[in-house]
Design goal:
Rossmann fold, 22 strands, 15 helices, single chain, 24% strand, six-stranded parallel beta sheet, 2 domains, alpha/beta, eight-stranded mixed beta sheet, 34% helix
């Protein structure tokens, strides 16, 4: 992963305390976070919180001799791969729109050539005021990116627009912007994930143990490396990743239709979904009653999603097996004409279902096998994407 530097500007909104969580999540994502706080922000949250979270200096004043980045605002502007102002007050939006540079943050904003991402947070009346909206339009016209504000309950007790966007949404947008220089920049990648639900009646369904974590990790990793990602997700309890186009599906038939539709623009398909092999032949339109001692359910095969899709250029499948892991995976790779298959053992106590880790084998089209150690699903996702990148480059 390339070294990435974010200058995080924190202004005097009551939502300033949420920027600590944002700084933490950026740091966990491998980003170096240099925090710049306005004087008003320091009244709401302490500098020490950001310093402890990021392990880097926090700048508050132009000529703070203890901080080398504070003597010259140019140094901060040059180190930034992204200037992220979160939260941004109406006052700071006005300064940015009019080129006012009267503190370290606004001087940095005026001097930097890095992309600027702004997450506004303020009272509804301030956000909706014509002056604020004019400033927002001016900034958008200059290429500034915005995330939010959200609609919801405000610190004042009111309800409306102006609420600080969820930290995960801001994080996703920031990582997507940082990924523009990544090794998958501009590539169009389609990922499927999660299990499917095949209806027995309006209440019951046939399903499996897939949680979707592997596919979500793949989508987020591809996004962070610059790819344009479409994620087709079966039912899951996971929050949709920001910066990714998400298509939600229910059944195997839904999955097939969605994949076929999305494949037209995709350069690579990574089929991590656990699609049902069988579906009830005649689902009941009304709830079945518990009146019989025995209930027989007739099943029919579902269509093979990977087997019936001709494109895209690079095709990656998954094999979840309990017996003869490598042998079964090789047969699947050949039958479905795949470029790569990820084989994992789902039997026993180390099953990857629901886990944050996975131990897998990567098998390519020539039959070569690479056994990987147990990795976090995010680390495994990057290993898979390394292979996808190489395959795309070779085409």
């Amino acid at each position: 992963m390339l070294e990435r530097n974010v200058v995080l500007g924190v202004t005097g909104s009551i939502a300033a305390y949420k920027a600590v969580d944002l700084a933490s999540k950026l740091t966990q994502a491998g980003v170096s976070v240099y925090t710049v706080m306005t004087e008003s922000a320091t009244k709401l949250v302490g500098e020490a919180s950001f310093r402890a979270i990021t392990g880097l200096p926090v700048s508050t004043r132009m000529f703070e001799l203890t901080n080398p980045h504070s003597i010259e605002h140019i140094s901060l502007s040059e180190v930034a791969d992204l200037l992220l102002i979160a939260p941004a007050t109406a006052n700071v939006l006005a300064k940015l729109a009019n080129g006012i540079a009267d503190d370290l943050l606004t001087c940095t904003a005026l001097a930097t050539r890095a992309p600027l991402l702004v997450a506004p947070a303020m009272h509804t009346a301030m956000w909706e005021h014509p002056a604020t909206q004019a400033n927002v339009k001016t900034l958008r016209d200059r290429g500034v990116s915005f995330v939010g504000p959200a609609v919801g309950r405000l610190a004042s007790g009111g309800y409306g627009s102006g609420r600080f966007s969820p930290v995960t949404e801001i994080l996703g947008k920031a990582l997507r912007i940082l990924g523009r220089s990544g090794d998958l920049a501009g590539r169009r990648i389609l990922v499927s994930t999660g299990g499917t639900r095949e209806p027995i009646d309006p209440v019951r369904f046939l399903g499996n143990r897939s949680t979707g974590k592997m596919g979500f990790a793949l989508a987020e990793a591809a996004r962070d490396r610059g790819a344009e990602v479409t994620l087709i997700a079966g039912p899951t309890q996971l929050a949709s990743p920001s910066g990714v186009d998400v298509v939600n599906v229910e059944t195997a038939a839904d999955m097939l239709e969605a994949v076929r539709t999305a494949c037209g623009d995709a350069e690579a398909l990574i089929m991590a979904a656990a699609v049902a092999d069988w579906t009830p032949a005649s689902p009941s339109t009304s709830k079945l009653k518990k009146s019989e001692a025995e209930f027989l359910l007739r099943l029919v095969r579902t269509d093979d999603v990977l087997g019936s899709i001709e494109g895209p250029a690079v095709r990656v499948g998954f094999a979840a097996e309990t017996d003869d892991l490598v042998g079964s995976a090789r047969k699947k790779l050949e039958a479905k004409r795949l470029d790569l298959i990820v084989a994992n053992d789902v039997g026993g106590p180390d099953s990857p279902f629901g886990s944050d880790t996975n131990q897998a084998f990567l098998i390519n089209a020539t039959g070569e096998v690479e056994e990987l150690p147990r990795l976090s699903k995010r680390d495994l996702a990057d290993r898979i994407l390394d292979r996808v990148r190489d395959l795309l480059d070779a085409r």
